[in-house]
Amino acid sequence: MMSQVQIHPTAVVAPGSEIGADVLIGPYAVVEEDTVLGNGCQIGAHAVIKRYSRLGAENLVAEGAVLGGEPQDLTFSGDRSHLQIGDRNVFRESVTVNRATEEDAATRIGDNCYLMAYSHVAHECVLGNHVILANNVALAGHVSLSDHSFLSGGVGVHQFCRVGKMAMIGGNSKVVQDVLPFFLVDGAPAIHRCLNLVGISRSSMSQEELRFLKRAYRLLSSTELRLRQKIEELECLDSPALKTLVDFIESSQRGFCSFSR
Length: 261
Prior knowledge:
The protein is an alpha/beta fold and about 260 residues long. The protein is about 15% helix and about 25% strand. Strands 1-4-7-10-13-16-19-22-25-27-28 form an 11-stranded mixed sheet. It has a 9-stranded parallel sheet with strand order 2-5-8-11-14-17-20-23-26, with no helix packed on it. The relative contact order is 0.08.
C-alpha cells in the first residue's frame, strides 16, 4: 500500500517543511518552514509546529499545542536554536514546548513521553524516555528529567534542577533542588518522603536491588553521618541502582531535596 500525507485544506504548511510518510495534519494547523515531521505523525486542529523543530516518527500533537516556540527568556536575541523530539511521544491539548535560547542549542525530548494538557517545557530542557508530565506541570529552563520519571499535576520545577531516573513528584509540589533517582518527593518545597515503590514495582528491578534502595533511603534520611560518609557506605555495596544513585548525588550542582524525618 502506498503511503500518503493527509493535509486538511485549512491547514498552513510551509513549502520549506519536510513531511514524512503517512502524516496527518488537521484543520487550521500550522507547520512553519525548516521543520521536520517524521513518518506517521499526527498534528491536531489548531496545533502549531514552529520553525527549527524536528519531530521523529509517530508523534501525536493534540489540538492547540505549540511546539518549538521562541524561548521565554529575556536574553534571547533571535538566534537559530532548536527543538528535537524523538519517536512516539504524545503532546496533549495546549502543551507548549520552547526551543533553546543559545544558538545551535536544543531543547530535547526522547521517546515514548506523555505530556498531558497545559504542561510546559521551557528552553534547554532535556527529557529522557518514558517521561510523564501530568496536567499543568511547568518546567523552567535547563531542567533535566531522566527516564521513567513521573511529575504529577501542577508541579513546578525551578531552573537547572534535575529529576532522577524512576523518580516521582507529588501533585502541586514546588521543586527547587534535585530529586534523587527511585525516590518520591512531595510538598512545597518538595522533600523526599519515601521510595517510589509504585514505579519500582512496574520495572524489572530485582528484590535484591529493592532491598539495597531501602537501605539507601534509611541511610540518606538519617542524621547520624555526614553525606560523604553515607556515599562511602553506599559505594561499598554491589548494586547498579545504588551506583546510579551515587553518581546522581555526586554530579548535583544545586544539591538535592531534603528528607522527611
